[in-house]
Amino acid sequence: MSPVMPDEWDQLVALARREVAATLKSLPAPLREKARALPVTFEPWPNDALVEEGIEPDTLGLFVGGDYAEGEHSVIPSQIILFLENIMDMVEGDEEEFRAELRTTLLHELGHYLGLDEDGLFDRGLE
């Protein structure tokens, strides 16, 4: 994992923001409202602290905080973190595949927010 140049990172974030917005817009209205309340942040890859906590360095996305049912009772605020460099590396730089994988990763992590476990996500094709 080598760092990207600032201009490349800005372009990658802009592409990711557009894909997140399009994905959220495509959701059914009740789900869209829940999803839009959940912050989505972008990082190149998991930082050292996350890796020390057991997150794999090549992780594509991460949901942190309490799920929707827990609401305000979570210890940390709920959010989705998308690791853009990891996603781009996985698709070997293909922009169309990047957008598709970002969408899948976002929906996977959104599923965690909504209370789905890995089996539930697998059953919906979001593994």
The largest sheet has its strands arranged as 1-3-2
For the sheet with most strands, the description reads: 3 strands, mixed
Terminus-to-terminus distance: 23 Å
Report the average pLDDT across residues.
87
Which class of secondary structure composition applies to the elements?
A: mainly alpha
- The CATH architecture can be given as 2-Layer Sandwich
Strand residue percentage: 5-15%
The number of distinct structural domains comes to 1
Identify the quaternary structure here.
Answer: single chain
CATH topology: Zincin-like
Low-confidence stretches: none
Please write the CATH class name.
Alpha Beta
Radius of gyration: 14 Å
The shape is globular
Report the strand count.
3
- Number of helical segments? 6
What descriptive keywords fit this protein?
127 residues, Zincin-like, mainly alpha
Summarize the structure.
By secondary structure, the chain is mainly α. The chain contains six helices and three strands, in the order ααβαββααα.
Protein described:
With about 130 residues, this protein is mainly alpha-helical. It has one domain: Zincin-like (2-Layer Sandwich). The protein is about 50% helix and about 10% strand. The chain contains six helices and three strands. It is globular, with a radius of gyration of 14 Å.
